[in-house]
Amino acid sequence: MNSPVQQIKERLSIEEIVSSYIKLEKAGANLKAKCPFHNEKTPSFFVSPERGNYYCFGCGAKGDIFTFVEEFEGLDFKGALKILADRAGVSLAQYSREKEGGKEKLYKIMEEATKFFEKNLVADKSVSEYLKTRGLEDKTIKDFRIGFIKEDWRLLYSHLKEIGFTDEEIERAGLVKRTEKGIYDRFRGRIIFPISDSIGRIIAFSGRIFSAQGGSASGGEDSNYEQAKYLNSPDTPIFSKSAVLYGLDKAKESIRKNNFSVLVEGQMDLILSHQAGYKNTIASSGTALSDSTMAKENAVSNLELVRRLSNNIVLAFDADRAGFNASNRAAKIALSLGMDVKVVSMPEGIDPADLISKSGSSAWRQVIKDSKHIIEFLLDKALKSVEDERKIGREIKEKILPYVDALESSIEKTYFLKKISDMSSIPVSALKDDLEKIKKDLAYERKETEETKETEDKLFRKDYIERRLLGIVLWQGSLADGKKPGIDVSKIMAEMADVLNIEEDKLLDKFKEEKEDLIFEAEVFYDGKVDLEKDAKELLDNFREEHFREELGRKMKELRMAEEKKDYEKSSLILQECQIINNKIQDIKNGRFKKYS
Question: Which is it for strands 230-232 and 190-196: parallel, antiparallel or unpaired?
Fold first, then answer.
């Protein structure tokens, strides 16, 4: 019988899956689009229905329906498998109870903790009543799985121990802290907001202190605890703060459909916005915005995931200084990712949750409708706040022109320079002069950012291929007696070690805690009628290509440093080395191009 992966591929075409995320156009026997994995003006992303895979000639992204969903959604293999299996109507029952890896245990712990928090909320009427006074309906509380935990040192810990989880597993999930006096709950006396990944698996929590319980914890084992209005899960093997946004799992379809997202700060802001009909709202609370395309352990960063759904974003943070600063930071990150950024002007002292609960959904709809481009928003604020006209020029140069410089379109830059000139009475020529100075000042920083992003993308894809290869090796090496491996395990290990220039026994060090997960992935993916030897060979070729790309990136950085020091002899030698590496990469790309032409 074919594996679930083969069954899914038989029922779902690459065209069907990719076109449900991005718009595809015909290109002969293939299809093309602008790559969702990097910013580009002309399409270089090709899909081959015949081969069942895709390739981007711009950034090197490649793979099948599984790799596409993994990379687009920022998921692991199991997450992508669940999405595609549900869509194809393929049962995973025979695999769900086998070889449970470390991460799978953590997902189970988080689910059990969520159920426990939900039951506690139902049992405590004061918390339910408080949430209703904030404007939340019963259905909303249930949909977002909001929970509660009483003020008790080990309430959750005792419950999880009773149902069979170990101290180590509970600690790895970020639910407890360990001290000399023992283990105690991280969350106590708090309303709990579960944070999910993009397919709805609970991966973290954010807890708001509930003052009706008589305040916060009274020092003792955790003296800083009472200071925190909000307490969030730490980074864990299944949660990276910069790789997820609160509510994205519920918002992604609406973001795609409406072609814009609304970013708020707090959980209550998000929940009430969804309840008011704006289901394309996401929140940064409990997470951390990343100014990179990648987050911890090569996970795709949160705003990069949002950009892939829509290039348009509306920021709706509080009107106070903290909200303004947070809005500026979010805007800079979004602009650096090539997004179109608008900002909502909130009334002083009012956050989105207050506005919706006190003035209704129509007021919320209106402020979103009246949102302005970040440059217009900042310009209005500068002109209103600076009374001395002589200081306006400095304010515009320091706080607004860097945003103009971040714009990709020359037409947009010209438009905003004229608008700034018209509103401030500063000549366009003077603004252009200052913009050129800013451009030079930021050139080095921009180059560093671009090189970092390029390196991160390469590392992400190289790690993905490395995982898949080592999964095959571990799976084939663990076959029961009498079953003959379909590949030469020792040969693959030797070739991988040779590429990385390390000893073979060091290959598995990076993934030693994920051994069972890797075996599961390989078994589900390749079990059945699959030419394993052929696939392993192709993966090895891809692994070499990504290694060459990584090596080229390092050499290009060395070249830039040598040129800055005017060491022309060294520059010439490095340039020759770069050319040799580039020729190797080009040979691989040319071979791939023939398949798509």
Answer: unpaired
User: What confidence score (pLDDT) does residue 509 get?
Assistant: 83
Q: pTM higher than 0.85, yes or no?
A: no
Cα separation of 544 and 496, whole Å?
9
What element of type H or E holds 340? Answer: strand 340-343
Helix axes 65-73, 428-477, angle to 10 degrees: 130
Q: Is the domain defined by 100-239 classed in CATH 3.90.980.10?
A: yes
pLDDT digit string (tens) for 80-121?
Answer: 998 999 999 988 776 654 455 678 889 999 999 999 999 999
Q: Measured between alpha carbons, how far is residue 188 from residues 149, 176, 213, 370 in Å?
A: 6, 10, 11, 41
* Continuous segment of H or E residues that includes residue 78: helix 77-88
Structural domain spans, the chain? 4-96, 100-239, 372-426, 452-596
- Encode pLDDT of 438-480 as tens digits: 887 766 555 555 554 555 555 566 777 888 888 888 888 877 6
**CB 310, CB 256: distance < 8 Å:** yes
Topology of the domain covering 4-96: DNA Primase; Chain A (3.90.580)
Closest by CA to 187, choosing from 142, 236, 150, 240, is 150
CA–CA distance, 488 with 476 (Å, rounded to integer): 9
Distance CA 5, CA 93 (A): 13
Q: Is the pLDDT of residue 224 over 50?
A: no
Spell out the alpha helix ranges (H) of 315-427. Answer: 321-336, 352-359, 361-369, 374-385, 389-399, 401-406, 410-424
